[in-house]
């Protein structure tokens, strides 16, 4: 029967090797899997982390393997491409860094065996992703196994299949469960035993059939539904391959029985009841270890997301660890799963989008948590759609519906994408990534934008797939966009919650992001190499104030939270203190004196607190309590002010002749003059070309459409902030280039 053994210890690793070794290397470094070579340089900024080919080598004795007639090497993930060699023979090539694949090595085994895996995360035009705001960690970051099976076994090679596919169909109080298995080898005289088990492990039904009957239907009377966080009930289907009384192989999978649909007016429905999808997006990395996560890391992430009260996660922008999908099944979290078809359409990458989508669906079909398959993310970032891009999306959309008739398709459109672009209408439901109030525009623009889309396309479900702003340990009593303070992030999310959560037609909302994550090309916010939009810090040790804003709306766990705990020193005589709670009333005390009791139906409470000397703050909401501390100072604590690193200009470095523009002026003010508007258009075109974008003219036209695109969004930016943000997105400029632009602006009259 099947035996799977971990093959993760003591691998030889080399970044310098340029060929497959003939014997076990002695001078390479030793690593254990999971492993990435970008755990440090992929997080320190500069966009200069190593991208290329590295080699892993390990050896084993056949005598040490479990008994079997065939042996497969299971690579759980190798980013981004991999070549597999056994005893010098190249057995497989795989493109796609986030999915599992297996290689039959039976015919090449000897008594002593050498396995070499060449893994490559280098730049190319075939394998996604190649352009995106996150680090493409290279390595064998999910581990390797050896699988021993008899000649007759459940299929192992087809797109990393689990060998079993379960499709439950709920009919009133009952359900019909269709189970299909995939076999390899001679099945003459063999049988299949299908066993349905309840969540407690007890047998609900068993069927024995000839091995040629690879599809069996089982009826569940009075079915127990998988009902999201309320009751994530899971059944198990186990199928054994038998030769008489001998068990040859066995596969099993958990599954859930549920129905769902999306109403374009009322949002998401689970099992016939409204079930608002309000949650977060997640990336899979940690400080220093990159994406080489352990089970405890995944559990901690799920625990934090559940503490927040989220009902949904967008698993961006690739296939995540199977264990994480298991956890989501168990906790009742509704999942958006997607492939890394992102940022830039590559004509040579079509086959890779198809193969990655097939792997995503085949490997994860049985998870009840997944309700939508994501086709792409911000694929028109560098220009409007073109015929090849549209055709690629239609191929993917049709293929997904053919492979899975039970789920919907979706995609995340970049904000400046024209809502009339034909590609927007391809998936069943669509979402947009909007950063009004951060990447231009005003916070107040978010809700009205959705109202406009909904009015024009009332039958097209619309969601918010990304929104957020960055916050580090910077602080102010006067928050504004671009200051990277925890206070502005809290204000931003307060406003977004009020706008998005009160519009039931928005089918799903996903905060970008639950956790800070590595993006090595970033050079903003004062800590390079990271995107700091997370509600929780990269190391998972600190929950930013905005975390509690969502907890106040989403969680049933009673709590009260005083904001600004890291903002102790304050100069003002009277300071604003914000309190979040899911309780109806909050009372705040300053040094034991009550500042009054407030009631709020939006869960946000604002108090004016006299700031003299040292003040101990105490908040009480029903049985919940929280404490904080502030201190009066005469001058602003500079430790709270953002310090930029790298070649970044500050406002005070810039010449600004009276009556003329400079980099310190806002884009909308410059654009009010004819000469200024022309200059901005030309500059934007140059930046887009520098970022590698195509169809720049079309992109600008789309950006201007309806005042909702990028050109409109940019209006509230100062020119210096626009240039810094473009630099973080890949359009890097030197200090000299930025000063040259300022000199040109100095020639344009206000």
What does this structure look like?
This protein has 750 residues and is of the alpha+beta class. It folds into five domains: 3-149, Galactose-binding domain-like (Jelly Rolls, Sandwich); 160-255, Sandwich (Immunoglobulin-like); 275-554, TIM Barrel (Alpha-Beta Barrel); 570-640, Sandwich (Immunoglobulin-like), CATH 2.60.40; 651-745, no CATH class. The chain has 13 helices and 42 strands. The strands form eleven sheets. Strands 25-26-27-28-29-30-31-32 form an eight-stranded parallel β-barrel, surrounded by four helices. The longest helix is centred in the middle third of the chain and has 17 residues, at 387-403. The protein is globular. It starts with a strand and ends in a 5-residue tail after the last helix. The model is unreliable at 692-709 (pLDDT under 50).
Q: Provide a count of the helices.
A: 13
Main beta-sheet annotation: 8 strands, parallel, barrel
Looking at CATH, which topology of the largest domain would you report?
TIM Barrel
Task: Round the Cα radius of gyration to an integer and report it.
Answer: 28 Å
Topology summary:
Layout: E1 3-6, E2 11-14, E3 29-31, E4 53-61, E5 70-75, E6 81-86, E7 89-95, E8 101-104, E9 112-120, E10 144-149, E11 153-154, E12 164-171, E13 174-181, E14 183-184, E15 191-197, E16 203-210, E17 215-220, E18 226-227, E19 231-232, E20 235-243, E21 246-255, E22 260-263, E23 267-270, E24 273-274, E25 277-282, H1 295-308, E26 312-315, H2 322-331, E27 334-338, H3 350-364, E28 370-377, H4 387-403, E29 408-414, E30 430-433, H5 446-456, E31 462-466, H6 486-500, E32 506-511, E33 517-518, E34 530-531, H7 545-554, E35 560-562, E36 569-570, E37 574-581, E38 585-590, E39 593-599, E40 604-610, E41 614-621, E42 624-632, H8 667-670, H9 674-690, H10 696-704, H11 710-713, H12 719-728, H13 735-745
Parallel strand pairs: 25-26, 25-32, 26-27, 27-28, 28-29, 29-30, 30-31, 31-32, 36-42
Antiparallel strand pairs: 1-10, 2-3, 2-4, 4-9, 5-8, 5-10, 6-7, 6-9, 11-14, 12-13, 13-17, 15-16, 15-20, 18-19, 20-21, 22-23, 23-24, 33-34, 35-37, 37-40, 38-39, 38-41, 41-42
């Amino acid at each position: 029967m099947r035996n799977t053994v971990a093959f993760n210890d003591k691998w030889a690793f080399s970044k310098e090797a340029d060929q497959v070794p003939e014997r076990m290397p002695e001078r390479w470094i030793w690593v254990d899997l999971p492993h990435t070579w970008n755990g440090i340089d992929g997080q320190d900024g500069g966009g200069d982390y190593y991208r290329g080919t590295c080699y892993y080598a390990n050896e084993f004795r056949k005598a040490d393997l479990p008994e079997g007639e065939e042996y497969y090497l299971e690579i759980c993930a190798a980013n981004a491409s991999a070549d597999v060699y056994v005893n010098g023979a190249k057995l497989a090539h795989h493109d796609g860094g986030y999915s599992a694949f297996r290689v039959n090595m039976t015919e090449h085994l000897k008594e002593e065996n050498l396995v070499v895996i060449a893994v490559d995360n280098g730049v190319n035009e075939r394998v996604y992703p190649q352009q995106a705001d996150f680090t493409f960690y290279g390595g064998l970051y999910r581990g390797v196994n050896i699988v021993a099976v008899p000649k007759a076994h459940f299929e192992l090679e087809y797109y990393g299949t689990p060998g079993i596919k379960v499709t439950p169909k709920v009919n009133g109080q009952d359900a019909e469960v269709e189970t299909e298995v995939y076999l390899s080898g001679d099945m003459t005289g063999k049988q299949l035993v299908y066993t349905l088990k309840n969540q407690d492990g007890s047998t609900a039904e068993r069927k024995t059939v000839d091995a040629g009957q690879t599809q069996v239907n089982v009826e569940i009377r009075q079915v127990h539904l998988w009902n999201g966080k309320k009751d994530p009930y899971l059944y198990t289907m186990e199928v054994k391959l038998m030769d008489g009384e001998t068990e040859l192989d066995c596969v099993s999978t958990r599954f859930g029985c549920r129905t769902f649909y999306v109403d374009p007016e009322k949002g998401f429905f689970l099992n016939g009841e409204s079930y608002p999808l309000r949650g977060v997006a997640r990336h899979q990395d940690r400080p220093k270890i990159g994406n080489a996560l352990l089970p405890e890391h995944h559990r901690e992430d799920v625990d934090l997301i559940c503490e927040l009260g989220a009902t949904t996660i967008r698993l961006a922008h690739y296939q995540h660890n199977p264990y994480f999908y298991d956890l989501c099944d168990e906790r009742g979290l509704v999942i958006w799963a997607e492939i890394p078809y992102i940022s830039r359409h590559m004509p040579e990458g079509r086959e890779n989008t198809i193969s990655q989508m097939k792997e995503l669906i085949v490997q994860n079909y049985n998870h009840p948590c997944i309700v939508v398959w994501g086709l792409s993310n911000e694929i028109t970032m560098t220009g409007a759609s073109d015929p090849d891009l549209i055709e690629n999306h239609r191929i993917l959309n049709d293929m997904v519906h053919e492979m899975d008739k039970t789920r919907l398709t979706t995609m995340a459109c970049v904000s400046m994408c024209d809502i009339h672009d034909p590609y927007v209408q391809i998936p069943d439901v669509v979402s947009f990534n909007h950063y009004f109030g951060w990447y231009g525009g005003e916070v107040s623009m978010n809700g009205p934008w959705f109202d406009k889309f909904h009015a024009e396309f009332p039958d097209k479900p619309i969601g918010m797939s990304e929104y957020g702003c960055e916050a580090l340990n910077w602080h102010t009593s006067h928050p504004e966009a671009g200051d990277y303070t925890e206070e502005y992030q809290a204000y931003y999310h307060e406003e977004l919650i009020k706008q998005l959560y009160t519009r039931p037609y928005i089918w799903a909302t996903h905060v970008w992001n639950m956790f800070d994550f590595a993006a090595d090309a970033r050079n903003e916010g004062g800590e390079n190499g990271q995107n700091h939009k997370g509600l929780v810090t990269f190391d998972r040790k600190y929950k930013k104030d905005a975390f509690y804003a969502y907890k106040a709306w989403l969680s049933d766990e009673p709590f009260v939270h005083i904001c600004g705990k890291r903002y102790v020193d304050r100069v003002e005589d009277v300071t604003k203190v914000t309190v979040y709670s899911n309780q109806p009333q909050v009372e705040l005390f300053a040094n034991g004196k009550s500042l009054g009791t407030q009631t709020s139906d939006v869960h946000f409470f604002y108090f004016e607190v006299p700031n003299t000397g040292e003040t101990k703050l105490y908040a009480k909401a029903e049985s919940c309590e929280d404490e904080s501390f502030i201190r009066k100072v005469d001058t602003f604590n500079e430790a709270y002010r953002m310090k930029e690193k790298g070649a970044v200009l500050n406002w005070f470095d810039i010449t600004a002749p009276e009556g003329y523009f400079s980099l310190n002026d806002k884009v909308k003010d410059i654009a009010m003059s004819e000469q200024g508007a022309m200059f901005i258009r030309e500059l934007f075109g140059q930046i887009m070309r520098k970022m590698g974008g195509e169809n720049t003219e079309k992109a600008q036209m789309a950006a201007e459409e309806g005042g909702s695109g990028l050109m409109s969004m940019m209006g509230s930016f100062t020119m210096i902030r626009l240039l810094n943000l473009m630099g973080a997105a890949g359009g890097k400029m030197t200090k000299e280039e930025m000063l040259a632009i300022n000199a040109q602006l100095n020639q344009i009259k206000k």
